Amino acid sequence: MEIANSTVVKEFILLGLTQSRNTQLLVFVLILIFYLIILPGNFLIILTIRLDPGLSAPLYFFLGNLAFLDVSYAFIVAPRMLADFLSEKKVISYKGCITQLFFLHFVGGGEGLLLVVMAFDRYIAICRPLHYSTVMNPRACHTFLLAPWLGGFVHSIIQVALILHLPFCGPNQLDNFFCDVPQVIKLACTDTFVVELLMVFNSGLLTLLCFLGLLSSYAVIFCHVRGSSSEGKNKALSTCTTHVIIILIMFGPAIFIYTRPFRALPVDKVVSFFHTVIFPLLNPVIYTLRNQEVKCAMRRLLRWHVVC
Fold first, then answer.
1. What number of CA atoms fall less than 13 Å from residue 150's CA on the CB side?
2. Cα–Cα 20 to 30 A to 126, which of 82, 92, 299, 305?
3. Is the keyword Membrane in the record (predicted)?
């Protein structure tokens, strides 16, 4: 394939979430209200975990980083989508499209791997409590945190490298509200069967394996805590149930999008919308609502701020 000289498309036209102007304005208002309410809550979670000395355990260290990744993930797509709702012509440059795609998979891949790290943390804490302080020491936690960032970077670089080797000579209309692999690949003016298989392997298969591995690990944890004391059992079950909810929220749409051949379905845009715009900001909130320590720390921080 000839690469550099065959790509003549300089920009892509985004068809958007819907063609109805009234629906676009309604979604714009709803998303704006949602972000104005939920986004400060996510920043409060990050700030609370950073400032409260009682939240120094690895669980909260990883939770703070998850909140940061979720906020970053939401900012990759949502601001431009809101701006496009108010614009007649929804255009993104070729370089801008590739950049958006890179950060989408960089942060998304890192978040998925961070959930794997958090599952390992819960496994050690619940199934090997005597070894917890040794295994999950501060140096190990920072090493474990580095792994999702590196993994997300490698995953995203592979995605981008495969797309950069595709020629785009027209048409240039993306049937979506952001740039993602399935829609971009379909616009290449060459046979993309092999590239699609590589993409499905890189995104879909890895997502599915992580998902099944996470469910299996929490199944082991659930079986282990059945013989624990009532207090320890209830706390462990509450924490792990929250983790499983987040896993289902994050991996469910990703598996639907990336583990099948890249054929457009009517529900694709709706799934992508919740996956990239709504669910990321809900993840830390769900954790917080089910975690008494974080809620108490947030109240202390807010009371301290009011007094000062």
1. 6
2. 299
3. yes
